[in-house]
């Protein structure tokens, strides 16, 4: 008996509560009078049911830095955060630039069984930006790579990027660009602006991101290819996306929860937990990113979950590694920054955290409507909950959350992968 009934839930937070029967990995029935059923019951307590979240941008650190995150610990963090699929970035050690690695990541994720861990393949060998990796063999492997990215590094050479886009187009896969012109960010650790100047931190100009976004939009146009912009962080990037989309260019973009909540005033303490690439920008950028996500100029939320060891974060700002944890706090931050101010309703949350990421990457078993016959990849959310972030309580091995001790709204109370409960009330449910 693997059937589950989720009782008393509001689909997309709308209308009267209903019961939802999950069987054989699908939504079998939705109604108020499902009769007596031999099934495990999950009390939905009138909470919000949405399609499970999909993260297009997660760093899981396996292979190579299992002291900071593994596919197992990262999968647990994802399930607790309401995710049913994540895309694990290629900047592991060794780099995921061959099918041996990308297939391993997929298989290990399936073994753990908490969330589908889709491998991201590197665009170039060793993320060095010099020679294209064997994208075709990675796409054809059991890991069936759908996203290629050198994330952490920019594919800065325009000719290599052009070839990557052409090649990706013929394979039907997506290039996700970490937009950073490296010649403009040499030594940079913080957003270039008054705060960095005052604090004596080397500045990272907006133009480092925007010049690559503009360039790649034009390259995608000429190649007739799609391009996806990772972690958009500036108001100028928003304007460029608007322009490119108006031209009919196939460009999509993601924004991180941290760029929607935090700005560079956080750097005043020199606490390196706030160091991230791209850097935290100014309040005006934050406002523009929120508006862009509400309007669909930025398509989706992606966490850029980036675990780092204490010794790499609890040190001088400029010596610290960039990156922050994100999987377990993402939903709450989207509620804080988008739902509470009235920029998104629950349908909007489903759109930016589930439906749009699934569409961008062509996953047909995720981000589906809450309807009979659809795959039962689901998340249950208590919209009235409040909780205080405590790094030591997170499932991630690393503890570098910038949201430590913040009280945030809304909590994931259950996650279902193909009809099976993976997380419930802050605990992993063993498979
Ligand atoms: O802050 C970041 N951390 N940005 C990146 O692009 C890479 C990531 C990491 O791997 O730690
Ligand atoms: Zn990146």
UniProtKB/TrEMBL annotation:
<dbReference type="InterPro" id="IPR024403">
    <property type="entry name" value="DHOase_cat"/>
</dbReference>
<keyword id="KW-0479">Metal-binding</keyword>
<dbReference type="GO" id="GO:0004038">
    <property type="term" value="F:allantoinase activity"/>
</dbReference>
<feature type="binding site">
    <location>
        <position position="91"/>
    </location>
    <ligand>
        <name>substrate</name>
    </ligand>
</feature>
<feature type="binding site">
    <location>
        <position position="277"/>
    </location>
    <ligand>
        <name>substrate</name>
    </ligand>
</feature>
<feature type="binding site">
    <location>
        <position position="304"/>
    </location>
    <ligand>
        <name>Zn(2+) 1</name>
    </ligand>
</feature>
<feature type="binding site">
    <location>
        <begin position="59"/>
        <end position="61"/>
    </location>
    <ligand>
        <name>substrate</name>
    </ligand>
</feature>
<dbReference type="GO" id="GO:0004151">
    <property type="term" value="F:dihydroorotase activity"/>
</dbReference>
<dbReference type="InterPro" id="IPR002195">
    <property type="entry name" value="Dihydroorotase_CS"/>
</dbReference>
<protein>
    <recommendedName>
        <fullName>Dihydroorotase</fullName>
        <ecNumber>3.5.2.3</ecNumber>
    </recommendedName>
</protein>
<feature type="binding site">
    <location>
        <position position="231"/>
    </location>
    <ligand>
        <name>Zn(2+) 2</name>
    </ligand>
</feature>
<feature type="binding site">
    <location>
        <position position="178"/>
    </location>
    <ligand>
        <name>Zn(2+) 2</name>
    </ligand>
</feature>
<feature type="binding site">
    <location>
        <position position="57"/>
    </location>
    <ligand>
        <name>Zn(2+) 1</name>
    </ligand>
</feature>
<dbReference type="InterPro" id="IPR011059">
    <property type="entry name" value="Metal-dep_hydrolase_composite"/>
</dbReference>
<keyword id="KW-0378">Hydrolase</keyword>
<dbReference type="GO" id="GO:0008270">
    <property type="term" value="F:zinc ion binding"/>
</dbReference>
<dbReference type="GO" id="GO:0044205">
    <property type="term" value="P:'de novo' UMP biosynthetic process"/>
</dbReference>
<keyword id="KW-0665">Pyrimidine biosynthesis</keyword>
<feature type="binding site">
    <location>
        <position position="59"/>
    </location>
    <ligand>
        <name>Zn(2+) 1</name>
    </ligand>
</feature>
<comment type="similarity">
    <text>Belongs to the metallo-dependent hydrolases superfamily. DHOase family. Class I DHOase subfamily.</text>
</comment>
<dbReference type="InterPro" id="IPR004722">
    <property type="entry name" value="DHOase"/>
</dbReference>
<feature type="binding site">
    <location>
        <position position="151"/>
    </location>
    <ligand>
        <name>Zn(2+) 1</name>
    </ligand>
</feature>
<dbReference type="GO" id="GO:0006145">
    <property type="term" value="P:purine nucleobase catabolic process"/>
</dbReference>
<dbReference type="GO" id="GO:0005737">
    <property type="term" value="C:cytoplasm"/>
</dbReference>
<dbReference type="Pfam" id="PF12890">
    <property type="entry name" value="DHOase"/>
</dbReference>
<keyword id="KW-0862">Zinc</keyword>
<feature type="domain" description="Dihydroorotase catalytic">
    <location>
        <begin position="46"/>
        <end position="234"/>
    </location>
</feature>
<dbReference type="InterPro" id="IPR050138">
    <property type="entry name" value="DHOase/Allantoinase_Hydrolase"/>
</dbReference>
<comment type="pathway">
    <text>Pyrimidine metabolism; UMP biosynthesis via de novo pathway; (S)-dihydroorotate from bicarbonate: step 3/3.</text>
</comment>
<feature type="active site">
    <location>
        <position position="304"/>
    </location>
</feature>
<feature type="binding site">
    <location>
        <position position="151"/>
    </location>
    <ligand>
        <name>Zn(2+) 2</name>
    </ligand>
</feature>
<feature type="binding site">
    <location>
        <begin position="322"/>
        <end position="323"/>
    </location>
    <ligand>
        <name>substrate</name>
    </ligand>
</feature>
<dbReference type="InterPro" id="IPR032466">
    <property type="entry name" value="Metal_Hydrolase"/>
</dbReference>
<comment type="function">
    <text>Catalyzes the reversible cyclization of carbamoyl aspartate to dihydroorotate.</text>
</comment>
<feature type="binding site">
    <location>
        <position position="308"/>
    </location>
    <ligand>
        <name>substrate</name>
    </ligand>
</feature>
